[in-house]
Specification:
The structure holds two protein chains of two kinds.
Chain A lengths: L1 H16 L6 E3 L9 E7 L3 H12 L4 E7 L7 E8 L5 H30 L4
Antiparallel strand pairs in A: 1-2, 2-4, 3-4
Helix pairs in contact in A: 2-3
Chain B lengths: L16 E4 L4 E2 L19 H7 L1 E7 L3 E7 L3 H13 L3 E12 L5 H9 L29 E8 L1 E2 L13 E2 L2 E3 L4 E3 L4 H4 L13 E4 L5 E11 L10 E14 L10 H6 L6 E3 L5 E3 L1 H4 L18 E16 L5 H31 L1 H8 L8
Antiparallel strand pairs in B: 1-2, 1-16, 3-4, 4-16, 5-12, 6-10, 6-12, 7-8, 9-11, 13-16, 14-15
The chains are: A alpha+beta, B alpha+beta.
């Protein structure tokens, strides 16, 4: 039936919006107070790893942040965060993601402004 | 001081400079982190970032764009460059069904060549095959474009030879323009304004002799460059750091050596006036190759410093495929933002999950590995 045919893609769109909880996990041996922890992100590489490392290092509450790709043939990215103790590593990660997001928005806005000046509309 | 003051004064801030020496480079890493300089705040500040950020389109053509991205860290610029190459989606032929191929080019070689043909399909009009309903990867009219390649070579006008002794052949060359799009389902109306096909119709895919024929069915799907380079939307996406040449006022270049000095740099970078005095054209400085030729000559020792500006990225992006060059960078930002959003959502689970498993582990002293 046409009705059904139409319904199917709608379901997939909802699926897309589902949160993929497997995407990131906390690695064992995090400190009890949560101020130092390592995370593992699936299917990400230097593209996000280095950018996220940079922005988390910009956080004055963070003592250390580093990332590594433990093995070249596994699509895994490890991020280590240690804070000075005022915030937890998870909080530092969230702040980093928010900051990185606003950075992207700023660059996008600036680039669009430039294109308008050049006289190109997208 | 300089002939045409094109560079902002802040470009001469030594903290922004990477040194280029005869045999080594110096001050490569960025230092704008909290705690690096005593009593200076380098923590993330959006307002400060907005003030420092500069984007300027330098050149825009049909197929390529050059723009400056000033005031960002290398990790950010590099992320966009990598996304442009490997993660901005396009549509390319992935599945090839060979009904007949009597040409000399093998099926798999021909299939590979066909896969590399850039298509003019806007990727936003096509869904991901992996998101298809039911059985994963099921093709449907929203995620797959079908092309046919039915072609055979024959003599024009029988066996007659022309004046030069060669025969006129039809379909001697199989070209990308010979791909025939076969609309499926709702595609007739969806792609009405822009029927799918190759961006360049003159790519030779195979050569035929009379009597040889090729008949194939080709399925194009959406993908990304990290899976296969055929899905990469760019021919090149690269950046370089803005060059900086600083003359030493304490040790001017001797007038009789001025021409030799000028020849050590890319044309137009060094100007020599009638008195033989040397100056740097700041507008042309960005074109310098920073070849370090000047550092090879003893007589110019101490006359000049070669540098690059660490946070001034000159991007050069060439589009190959459906995206207009100016749209590519925006697409890469979009991909980046999607990545961040995905991880942000997943990390919310980390926040919630944080308090729950910990008391469990504390209760019996063992950490249970129930959750994967």
């Amino acid at each position: 039936m046409a009705q059904e045919d139409f319904d199917v893609p709608m379901d997939t769109q909802e699926q897309e919006q589902d949160v993929d909880l497997e995407k990131i996990k906390l690695l064992p041996n995090a400190s009890d107070d949560g101020t130092s922890a390592s995370f593992q992100v699936i299917d990400e590489d230097h593209t996000l790893g280095n950018a996220l490392r940079y922005i988390i290092m910009k956080n004055p509450e963070v003592e250390f942040c580093g990332y590594s790709i433990p093995h070249p043939s596994e699509n895994k990215l490890n991020i280590r965060i240690q804070t000075y103790g005022n915030i937890t590593a998870v909080e530092a990660l969230h702040q980093g993601l928010d900051n990185l997001s606003e950075l992207c928005v700023t660059i996008e806005g600036n680039f669009r402004e430039q294109l308008e000046k050049v006289g190109t509309n997208i | 001081m300089a002939s045409s003051s094109k560079l902002p004064q802040s470009a001469y801030n030594p903290r922004r400079h990477v040194g280029v020496h005869a045999e080594w480079i110096s001050d490569v890493s960025s230092t704008d982190y909290p705690g690096h300089y005593p009593h200076e705040d380098h923590s993330w500040d959006l307002e400060k970032f907005k003030q420092n950020l500069q984007v300027k389109v330098q050149r825009l053509s049909q197929r390529s764009i050059e723009f400056d991205l000033v005031g960002v860290d290398a990790s950010i610029a590099n992320a966009f460059r990598r996304i442009l190459i490997a993660e901005v989606p396009t549509v390319a032929i992935e599945h090839v069904y060979v009904w007949n191929n009597t040409s000399v080019i093998q099926d798999e070689v021909l299939a590979h060549r066909i896969g590399l043909v850039p298509l003019n399909v806007d990727p936003s009009m096509v869904e991901w095959r992996k998101n298809a309903p039911g059985f994963e990867g099921q093709p449907n009219d929203r995620n797959t474009l079908v092309f046919r390649l039915p072609i055979s070579c024959e003599r024009i006008g029988g066996n007659k030879k022309n004046a030069t002794g060669t025969q006129q052949l039809k379909n001697e060359y199989v070209k990308s323009g010979d791909l025939v799009w076969q609309p499926q389902g709702e595609q007739v109306s969806v792609f009405e304004s822009c029927p799918p096909g190759p961006t360049n119709k003159d790519i030779v895919l195979a050569k035929l002799r009379p009597g040889q024929e090729i008949d194939m069915e080709l399925h194009a799907i959406k993908g990304v460059g990290k899976d296969h380079a055929k899905w990469s939307p760019v021919a090149t996406a690269s950046y370089r750091l803005h060059p900086l040449i600083i003359l030493n006022p304490e040790k001017p270049v001797p007038p009789h050596l001025a021409q030799k000095f000028a020849k050590c740099f890319s044309p137009g970078v060094v100007t020599v006036d009638e008195d033989g005095e040397v100056s740097i054209d700041e507008k042309n400085m960005r074109q310098d190759s920073v070849s370090r030729e000047v550092l090879r000559h003893k007589e110019f020792e101490g006359c000049v410093q070669l540098k690059r500006i660490r946070d001034w990225f000159i991007f050069n992006v060439e589009s190959e495929g459906p995206y207009a060059p100016e749209r590519l960078f925006l697409e890469s930002i979009l991909v980046m933002r999607q990545k961040i959003a995905t991880i942000k959502d997943a990390a919310e689970g980390l926040m919630r999950g944080e308090d729950e498993p910990v008391p469990e582990a504390a209760a019996d002293g063992d950490v249970e590995m129930t959750e994967t």
